[in-house]
Amino acid sequence: MSQSRQPIVIGNWKMNGLEASAGELNAMMAAAAGNSACKVMVCPPTTLIAGFAAKAAGSKVAIGAQDCHDAVSGAHTGDISAEMMADAGAAAIIVGHSERRADHGEADSLVCSKAEAAHRAGLVAIICVGETEAQRDAGQAEDIIGGQLEGSLPAEITAENTIIAYEPVWAIGTGRTPTLEDIEAMHSFIRGKVQALRGDVALGIRLLYGGSVKPGNAKEILGIEDVDGGLVGGASLKAEDFAGIFGVFS
Length: 250
Ligand code: 13P
Description:
8 strands; 250 residues
């Protein structure tokens, strides 16, 4: 973590959460109230964005979305545009999560268009990259991540409108994480790659680690150089766990 990049911990609720989950949001807002050391964001399912954004207004917890269509509007049944996410109160949109890349066949070019859509709507794009276990075992992790960055990053990115999340696919929901050395090496590689692609803007862009971050490992993982926060799945559903993660920054 660098002094010049304010850390952020983002909860990705994935396809979990109902109106009844508002109690967890309330507890997260209470826990975040005294924390000025890091930003906190919750990305609930789309059905909860407007309600959560209203509840969280004026609190330290921002609300984000998990995906969007890349068009502004049109004949795309079931899809939701970045402008609609903004209208509902989202401050950011996760794009290119490995579950969308796998479940919906999203390629880098579409991830890039979605990131551009988020920017067009005035929102932060949280762009996800990550290698599979087979790719890591084959020694291809940096090649894969480098290629995803080349294809997924819009031409114009700023430290304010873009966050990059490194989420090794094999660490998501498995309880397994890379070694601290491997995380540090990959984050250093990513920053260098983004700098090579887009220049010194890379030095201000926050790089998050995601994949089995828990209260028990958050301090060491989020303390790594070039790790500017976390993207948290399962452990972001309960306020006690999530607060135990973002609380390492207080
Ligand atoms: P877990 O924290 O459940 O491993 O999920 C990580 C993730 O995919 C966040 O986007």
